[in-house]
């Protein structure tokens, strides 16, 4: 991207960059979790880290497939009903596939389409807002997964951003 990119093209680049950063953060988080950690939930009303990953990938594939004009084949309820054990490697592969698919759609997206409206649960919403809301949604659930990882792994959990000062 050059310095003369339009604000719309810059926004798409920002979304693409954020997806890649989220992919790395999520992969690092999942890599330290065991199948038991990934399946753990504090109670039946809560989701496991694995459920949240399935949900993130399902939402990402649904939103970006729709943007590319492909049919929606998502089973959202199944994402939350899953009680199986998953490995970190399996879940990272799902995330990588979902992010690659989203990135391919964004790479081909004409920036002028950002003001096109999309039907979101019966409301007409500009595509720019749909993309922004999607990023917020993904980050919200990634934060939940990080929290589960820290709760389960304690001091074994890696620093994902700026390390804390020791003893100060």
Give an account of the 3D structure.
With 168 residues, this protein is mainly alpha-helical. The protein has a single domain, classed as dinb family like domain (Four Helix Bundle (Hemerythrin (Met), subunit A), Up-down Bundle). The chain is built from six helices and two strands, in the order H-H-H-H-H-E-E-H. Strands 1-2 form a two-stranded antiparallel sheet. Strand 1 and strand 2 form a beta hairpin. Helix 1 packs antiparallel against helix 5 and helix 3 runs antiparallel to helix 6. It is globular. The N and C termini lie far apart (41 Å). The mean pLDDT is 91.
Topology (elements, then pairings):
Elements: H1 7-31, H2 35-39, H3 49-67, H4 76-81, H5 88-108, E1 117-120, E2 123-126, H6 127-153
Antiparallel strand pairs: 1-2
Helix pairs in contact: 1-5, 1-6, 3-5, 3-6
Which descriptors would you attach to this protein?
single chain; 168 residues; mainly alpha; Four Helix Bundle (Hemerythrin (Met), subunit A); two-stranded antiparallel sheet; 6 helices; 2 strands; 61% helix; globular
Short note summarizing the structure:
This protein is mostly helical and 168 residues long.
What's the helical proportion of residues?
A: 55-70%
Question: What is the CATH superfamily?
Answer: dinb family like domain
Helix and strand content put the structural class at: mainly alpha
CATH fold descriptor: Four Helix Bundle (Hemerythrin (Met), subunit A)
**CATH class assignment:** Mainly Alpha
Query: Tell me, what's the shape?
Result: globular
Distance between the ends: 41 Å
Query: Largest sheet, if any?
Result: 2 strands, antiparallel
State the domain count.
1
Please identify, by name, the CATH architecture: Up-down Bundle
Order of strands across the main sheet: 1-2
Number of strands: 2
């Amino acid at each position: 991207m050059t310095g003369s990119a339009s604000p719309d093209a810059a926004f798409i680049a920002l979304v693409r960059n954020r997806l890649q950063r989220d992919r790395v953060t999520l992969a690092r988080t999942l890599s330290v979790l065991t199948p038991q950690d990934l399946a753990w939930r504090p109670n039946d009303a809560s989701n496991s880290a694995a459920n949240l990953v399935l949900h993130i990938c399902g939402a990402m594939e649904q939103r970006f497939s729709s943007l590319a004009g492909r049919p929606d084949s998502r089973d959202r309820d199944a994402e939350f009903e899953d009680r199986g054990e998953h490995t970190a490697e399996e879940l990272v592969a799902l995330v990588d596939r979902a992010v690659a698919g989203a990135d391919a759609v964004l790479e081909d997206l004409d920036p002028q389409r950002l003001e096109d409206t999309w039907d979101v649960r019966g409301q007409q919403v500009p595509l720019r807002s749909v993309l922004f809301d999607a990023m917020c949604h993904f980050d919200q659930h990634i934060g939940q997964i990080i929290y589960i990882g820290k709760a389960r792994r304690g001091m074994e959990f890696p620093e994902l951003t700026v390390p804390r000062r020791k003893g100060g």
